[in-house]
Amino acid sequence: MARGRNSALSIDSAKSLLREAGLRCTAARIGVIQSLSDSNSPMSPNEVAEDLVEFGFDKSTIYRSLTELDESGLVVRLELGEAVRRYELLPNKGNATSNHPHFLCITCGKVLCLTGFHVDVVADSGTSEFSLELTEVLLKGRCEACC
Predict the structure, then answer these.
(1) pLDDT digits 0-9 by tens, 83-141
(2) Where do the structural domains in the chain lie, given as residue ranges?
(3) Largest interatomic CA distance in the chain
(4) Is 146 flagged in the annotation as binding?
(5) Which contiguous run of DSSP H or E holds residue 50?
(6) Quick one: fold of 11-89?
(7) 147 annotated as a binding-site residue
(8) 3-class secondary structure, 133
(9) What is the pTM of this model?
């Protein structure tokens, strides 16, 4: 990725995120972070690979990078009830927004970030058998194009 890509998240910023997470700064990881940062919705591994096709990364490198970035806490893997996983940059990393629900079109499969929504989950008093780590909220319906 010597020639770089036109991204809202600079290569130096991506490198800084990788170093903070204790990961080596490889071209594939930098590209994946920039691709996710530039997207306005969670991306499948195939979408990330398509976005980075000009750099010649094979799909296994993209999948491995996504897995490593997920394990390091830089990105989150979303299980949206589809056969394919989606990934997005975690809040406070790059250009990602705070925790937000997602919308899945049941007709075309389009996934959208609902950044204009905020969801709070508050336990009733006396409920202390568990501690919530991460809450994923998925709303399903039909997008504007499919209505």
Answers:
(1) 668 888 876 655 444 567 888 898 988 888 888 877 777 777 766 677 766 667 888 89
(2) 11-89
(3) 57
(4) yes
(5) helix 45-51
(6) Arc Repressor Mutant, subunit A (1.10.10)
(7) no
(8) coil
(9) 0.74
